[in-house]
From TrEMBL:
Gene3D superfamilies: Periplasmic binding protein-like II (3.40.190.10). The lineage of its organism: Bacteria, Pseudomonadati, Spirochaetota, Spirochaetia, Spirochaetales. The keyword DNA damage does not apply. This is sn-glycerol-3-phosphate-binding periplasmic protein UgpB. Residues 1-21 form the signal peptide. It comes from the Bacteria. PANTHER family: ARABINOSE-BINDING PROTEIN-RELATED, SN-GLYCEROL-3-PHOSPHATE-BINDING PERIPLASMIC PROTEIN UGPB. InterPro entries: Bact_solute-bd_prot1, SBP. It is found in: Periplasm. One of its GO terms (cellular component) is periplasmic space. Keywords: Signal, Transport. The complex is composed of two ATP-binding proteins (UgpC), two transmembrane proteins (UgpA and UgpE) and a solute-binding protein (UgpB). Its main location: periplasm.
Amino acid sequence: MKKITAILLIVLALIPSLAFAGGSKEAAKEEASGKTVIRLWTNDRHDATFWTEKVDEYNATNTDNIELRYEIYTDNLMQAVDMAFQTGEAPDIMKYDMYFDKYILDERYVDLMPYLTDEQKELTKDVWYEGQNLIDGKLYFIPTGNTCLRLFYNKTIFDRLGLEVPTTLDEMVEAALTITEELSGEGIYGFACNLKSASSGLKRSLEPQVERGTGLRSRL
């Protein structure tokens, strides 16, 4: 196997989001106590402590007679959401990683735009992406996280060739070309992606850029 030295490794994190469902039998249920119960489903186990504290604080202090129920699912969240929609018991708010658009044509999600104040629109407008959460002027979810791109370089290779660490994309390309020209005979190349698993590598490396640039959602 050739020794391929990766000077840049791109790691892409999925963009978690909160979508608001409007297709269940009852958008929000009212308990005997008179409180309106809003159900929020998520699989963010790593943030469970933080969000549980925030939910408890909200429930204890809000004066709107609302009770927020924070329900954590494991890896079966997507299947649970699908089944809940079929039975008319979908949650009021859900965290969805990807492919939320499968229910848009069925009008399962609420357009958030009419409910946002001018201040909230100003606060969130930088994360409205046409073809993703903004479709035909309707806003279907607000991201709660970001795609993370991390760049790594091989210091040993850079020191060997006397190269400076690139600080711009042009410098990155120039350094990669130099490394390939000088060391390809040794099986060392200037750039590599995490493509050991073709499907996973393509999805992590290209899908977010395609969606951001074209508004198209792939099904890799």
